[in-house]
Amino acid sequence: MSLARRTDGSGHVNATASQEWERVLGRVKDELGEAVYRSWFAMLRCESIGEGEAVVAAPTRFLRNWIETHYGDRLLKLWRAENPSVRRMSILLDASIGGLQGIGAEPANSTDEAEQAPLVPAEPANSDEKGLFSAPLDPRFTFDNFVVGKPNELAHAAARRVAESCAAPSRAVPFNPLFLYGGVGLGKTHLMHAIAWQVRVQAPERRVIYLSAEKFMYQFVRALRFKSTMDFKEQFRSVDLLMIDDVQFIAGKDSTQEELFHTFNALVDQNRQIVFSADKSPSDLEGLEERMRSRLGWGLVADVHPTTYELRLGIMQSKAEQAGIEVPPKVMEFLAHKIASNVRELEGALNRIAAHAQLVGRDITLESTQELLHDLLRSNERRVTIDEIQKCVAEHFNIKMAEMTSARRARAVARPRQVAMYLAKQLTSRSLPEIGRKFGGRDHTTVMHAVKKIEELTASDRALGEDVELLRRMLQR
Ligand code: ADP
Ligand code: MG
Fold it and tell me: I want to staple 195 with a disulfide (CB 3.0 to 4.6 A). Which of 42, 105, 163, 396 is the partner?
């Protein structure tokens, strides 16, 4: 089979190629471990496979360089084990790959909240001595530090209610389970830790277990291996409050799901409180057994909505205050306006400008913020279309729009066309084949070449560099 055919005309990496990439990632996990995989590889995307070359995209320059220098050879080797015809591998920059905190400056942290760079020095996280299996709680994740707004008011009220009931002598169970769901970085984990903290303070005798679904599975598998399933069951079935974070993780993991189902039933029977979180509602979670799905929807299902500008501004103010950082209101408004994706990114931005201000000993200003965070801001910018780019570039260089798709190779039209391809790669989330198609059905390697060429030229040719900068700014307004 010809490798070139692995990317289809629509520009999506086709099923075969993406399955291949999945298998490569599987090898990465096996060989380098889950933690390394999550820190460095989970954010990569397979761009294309063709003509002996595999192209991968990374969301930040930092990540790209890191992978290249630390894992480049390894990754190629693993890839070749999967597909021997791959001889080279290259890594492109694609800022549009989403969901990353602190884009650009720091390593791409895994999604584990505990590994986030703290705004305030965190106390050493202590684990619950009574719940052997419980994960450490983040000292910053309390109700006091949680900013309530329209998008999260239901989830917050429900979490408060659960904490109060669980700590009360009567130990009532208001709704079982409480199921919190919503996108990444919207405060689900924060709320669960807050419940645990409150119960720990108000009713220290209560047995509380908080852990991720992943850890639940790990403990379960371990118990199986060491033939200690009785201990395992006992631990989990004797708690007052069980909280399992990110249960979407166990979708499709049948025996773990089964075990969780039985644990769940045992606890409900004893009238013990359960809290789950997930990225989707029970009805939208795929790979769940039907009985599990219906059980999850028994209690209260509370949705954490994406943040609003007001909520983001409130969170910014609260975090800056907590950390004792002076941030001009203009800067906060600017960030709350620009970084709309998730709170974790907003926090990352605040950390970065604070660290920078401390380091250089200068006040935080709007200008320094814009400069420092420009990569992060760009990835949050409004999306431009390829048509807009072509039109704008054609106008700028005074050529006809039709030249963007024509076969003419005269420099006077070829160069602007390359600039447009470069900008399309930089400013949109389109893949190389998709961009090629928009430029009169050109091959993805032509686009790749254009991107490299313009990267080189803008470094050496000042006039062109300015043109490209100007166009970029115009397109992003
Ligand atoms: P999720 O579990 O939903 O992915 P987290 O609970 O880990 O999100 O939240 C990500 C970061 O954002 C955390 O540092 C958390 O403290 C912060 N955060 C999210 N929502 C709020 C909020 N309403 N008030 C204060 N901090 C928040
Ligand atoms: Mg979480």
Answer: 163
Q: Which of 141, 142, 154, 186 to mutate to test the pocket of ligand 1 (most atoms within 8 A of CB)?
A: 186
Q: What is the DSSP letter of 67?
A: I
* pTM for this model (two decimals): 0.58
Ion ligand 2, residue ranges at CB < 5 A: 188-189
What residue's CA is closest to ligand 1, atom 23? 147
- Other residues' Cβ atoms within 10 Å of the Cβ of residue 413: 18
How far apart CA 38 and CA 375 sit, in angstroms, is 22
- Measured in Å, residue 285 CA sits from the centre of ligand 1 at 22
Q: 293: how many CB neighbours lie within 10 A of its CB?
A: 15
pLDDT at 30: 83
- DSSP string of 139-194, one letter each residue: TT-SSTTPPP-GGGHHHHHHHHHHHHHHHSTT---SSSSEEEEESTTSSHHHHHHH
- The whole-number pLDDT of residue 115 equals 32
**Cα-to-centroid distance, 297 and ligand 1 (Å):** 24
Which residue type does 442 have?
Answer: R
How far away, in angstroms, is 260 Cα from ligand 2 center? 19
Q: How far apart are CA 213 and CA 133, in angstroms?
A: 12
Backbone angles phi, psi at 226, to 5 degrees: -95, 15
- Under a CB-based contact definition with an 8 Å cutoff, are residues 102 and 109 in contact? yes
Bridge-based pairing state of the strands 88-93 and 53-58: parallel
Query: Ligand 1 centroid vs 238 CA: distance in angstroms?
Result: 29
In whole angstroms, give the CA distance from residue 44 to residue 63: 9
Ligand 1 atom with the shortest distance to the CA of 147: 24
CA–CA separation, 26 and 58 (whole Å): 18
Low-confidence ranges of the chain (pLDDT < 50): 1-12, 99-131
How far CA 138 is from CA of 117, 146, 160, 349, 453, in Å, comes to 12, 13, 17, 20, 47
pLDDT of residue 145: 92
